[in-house]
């Protein structure tokens, strides 16, 4: 990849990350906040603090949601974790996204009347929108801060973790606190929203999903293996076989990659051999030295 292509890819990643952040903020302010529900993680904590400031200290902020500003302040210690324990590019993108998120929370006005009145429907739509936004941000190599940073750190360290699962665990403590402050109905619907959100995150965040791939090709398998090795930085195993139907010699390549990497690999295989037969299986368990690249 030359310098121009590298810069173009970086700009695309930033654009995707910021777009995902905008979708996330819009989903929360348009569907979740108007019906009195609470997000999980650090945004949820920020929303609780905002509510306490408004209801107990009688501060007025109009239709402006200061939860984004509070969330940014709460994220400052986690920026250090992202910088020292994950990667500098991840830290830079995350810092920009969290800052942009704070701005989006401020400029996306909360409707005076809910767009969707039914709480359950709002949970599904809000969870879908916010989950897609968060997943896009993560897929672009950034995060919306808070639980996402913790989730990415633990996902890199432990194979059985995912960002969505970490969100569920952390949010159990957040909503446990909510039980003492709000009606149980608010907590129940907020939990339903968070569960939907977590599932959607893990579906959109393709780096979370491990895949095993078997490639059957009659072309030089070294070209495919070199792409897997040099571009994806993954290992592979190959052997020769005979087609049971055609009785022709064929080359077989086996590799384990992420679903995110599979998109590029599939495109490259098609360029080399449009008749290649590819078998893949999602969400496989992997142990050993397989590295998750968030």
SSE inventory with pairings:
Elements: H1 3-32, H2 41-55, H3 67-86, H4 88-107, H5 119-139, H6 147-157, H7 163-178, H8 184-204, E1 210-217, H9 221-230, E2 237-242, E3 249-258, H10 259-272, E4 277-282
Antiparallel strand pairs: 1-3, 1-4, 2-3
Helix pairs in contact: 1-4, 1-5, 2-3, 2-7, 3-4, 3-6, 5-8, 6-7, 7-8, 9-10
Task: Describe the 3D structure.
- Helix content is 61%, strand content 10%.
- With 294 residues, the protein is α+β, with helices and mostly antiparallel strands.
- The longest helix is centred in the N-terminal third of the chain and has 30 residues, at 3-32.
- The radius of gyration is 22 Å and the shape is elongated.
What's the short version?
The protein has 294 residues and is an alpha+beta fold. The chain is 61% helix and 10% strand. The mean pLDDT is 85.
Coarse structural class: alpha+beta
Please tally the β strands and state the result: 4
The helix/strand series, from N terminus to C terminus, equals: HHHHHHHHEHEEHE
**Lateral strand order in the biggest sheet:** 2-3-1-4
CA gyration radius, whole angstroms? 22 Å
Main sheet: strands, sense, barrel: 4 strands, antiparallel
Give the CA-based shape: elongated
Number of helices: 10
Question: How much of the sequence is in beta strands?
Answer: 5-15%
Uncertain stretches: none
Descriptors for this entry?
294 residues; 10% strand; alpha+beta; elongated
């Amino acid at each position: 990849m030359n310098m121009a292509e590298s810069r173009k890819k970086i700009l695309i990643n930033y654009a995707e990350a910021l777009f995902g952040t905008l979708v996330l903020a819009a989903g929360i302010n348009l569907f979740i906040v108007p019906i009195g529900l609470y997000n999980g993680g650090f945004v949820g904590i920020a929303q609780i603090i905002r509510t306490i400031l408004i209801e107990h200290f009688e501060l007025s902020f109009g239709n402006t949601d200061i939860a984004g500003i509070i969330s940014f302040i709460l994220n400052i210690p986690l920026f250090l974790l992202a910088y020292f324990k994950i990667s500098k590019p991840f830290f830079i993108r995350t810092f920009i996204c969290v800052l942009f998120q704070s701005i989006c929370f401020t400029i996306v006005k909360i409707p005076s009347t809910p767009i969707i009145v039914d709480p359950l429907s709002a949970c599904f739509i809000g969870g879908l929108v916010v989950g897609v936004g968060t997943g896009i941000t993560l897929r672009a190599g950034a995060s919306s801060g808070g639980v996402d940073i913790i989730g990415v750190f633990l996902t890199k360290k432990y194979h059985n973790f995912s960002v969505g699962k970490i969100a569920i665990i952390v949010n159990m403590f957040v909503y446990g606190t909510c039980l003492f402050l709000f009606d149980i109905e608010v907590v129940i619907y907020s939990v339903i929203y968070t569960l939907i959100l977590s599932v959607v995150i893990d579906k959109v965040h393709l780096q979370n999903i491990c895949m095993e791939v078997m490639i059957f090709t009659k072309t030089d398998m070294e070209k495919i293996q070199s792409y897997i090795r040099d571009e994806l930085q993954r290992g592979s195993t190959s052997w020769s076989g005979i087609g049971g139907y055609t009785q022709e010699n064929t080359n077989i390549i086996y590799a384990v990659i992420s679903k995110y990497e599979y998109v590029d690999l599939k495109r490259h295989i098609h360029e080399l051999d449009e008749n290649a037969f590819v078998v893949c299986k999602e969400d496989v368990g992997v142990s050993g030295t397989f590295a998750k690249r968030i």
